[in-house]
């Protein structure tokens, strides 16, 4: 099988149900999810310590689910609504978030990406995930999409944030705080 097909040489690509321009909102959305998946793979490669086995397994599952997200967004026409991303996946992410949060130190200031290599890589995943979510919102503003994908991406960026903090905590590395900020979290008003 050849890698090149020459079918995209004129600036179009195939999606499920037709062909669109390569800069179509649909392609931007699932393309950003593909980019995110690459960064998740990179983050896994930085999680060499045994203490990260649970996070590696979660991230490997997330990579599979990101393919599901991209697949759901690649449909131009889907008459029978056989979406792959389900609400249960969002709820499971919430459980993982709660598990990580239980390990993390209290947040008082905004966190700047940094600390360990693994944590830094997870922060990159978080920011790319936020962009993927924005692309899905843009696409959903004028085309029918699986709404569970938007919710999944929203929760996933939260997961990356808390997992990045967990990575630092497990290694005994302090989060990098935005020191020019007053303490804004955990205040009593």
UniProtKB/TrEMBL annotation:
Family designation: Belongs to the Cob(I)alamin adenosyltransferase family.
Stretches assigned to the Cobalamin adenosyltransferase-like domain: 3-167
Keyword Transcription regulation belongs to the record: no
> EC annotation?
2.5.1.17
Q: Which SUPFAM superfamilies match?
A: Cobalamin adenosyltransferase-like
Name the chemical reaction catalysed here: 2 cob(II)alamin + reduced [electron-transfer flavoprotein] + 2 ATP = 2 adenosylcob(III)alamin + 2 triphosphate + oxidized [electron-transfer flavoprotein] + 3 H(+); 2 cob(II)yrinate a,c diamide + reduced [electron-transfer flavoprotein] + 2 ATP = 2 adenosylcob(III)yrinate a,c-diamide + 2 triphosphate + oxidized [electron-transfer flavoprotein] + 3 H(+)
A GO molecular function annotation here is:
corrinoid adenosyltransferase activity
Q: Which UniProt keywords apply?
A: ATP-binding, Cobalamin biosynthesis, Nucleotide-binding, Transferase
This protein's pathway reads: Cofactor biosynthesis; adenosylcobalamin biosynthesis; adenosylcobalamin from cob(II)yrinate a,c-diamide: step 2/7
Name by which UniProt lists this protein:
Corrinoid adenosyltransferase
């Amino acid at each position: 099988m050849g890698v090149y097909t020459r079918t995209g040489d004129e600036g179009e690509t195939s999606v499920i149900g037709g062909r669109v321009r390569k800069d179509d909102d649909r392609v931007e959305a699932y393309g950003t999810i593909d980019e995110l998946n690459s960064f998740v793979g990179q983050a896994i490669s930085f999680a060499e310590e045994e203490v990260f086995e649970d996070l590696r397994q979660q991230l490997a599952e997330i990579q599979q689910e990101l393919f599901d997200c991209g697949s759901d967004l690649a449909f131009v026409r889907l008459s029978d609504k056989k979406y792959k991303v389900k609400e249960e996946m969002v709820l499971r992410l919430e459980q993982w978030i709660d598990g990580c949060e239980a390990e993390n130190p209290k947040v008082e200031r905004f966190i700047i990406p940094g600390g360990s290599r693994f944590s830094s890589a997870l922060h990159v995943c978080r920011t790319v995930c936020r962009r993927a979510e924005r692309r899905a919102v843009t696409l959903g503003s004028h085309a029918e999409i699986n709404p569970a994908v938007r919710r999944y991406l929203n929760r996933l960026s939260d997961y990356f944030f808390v997992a990045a903090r967990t990575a630092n905590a497990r290694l005994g590395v302090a989060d990098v705080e935005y020191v020019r900020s007053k303490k804004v979290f955990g205040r009593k008003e």
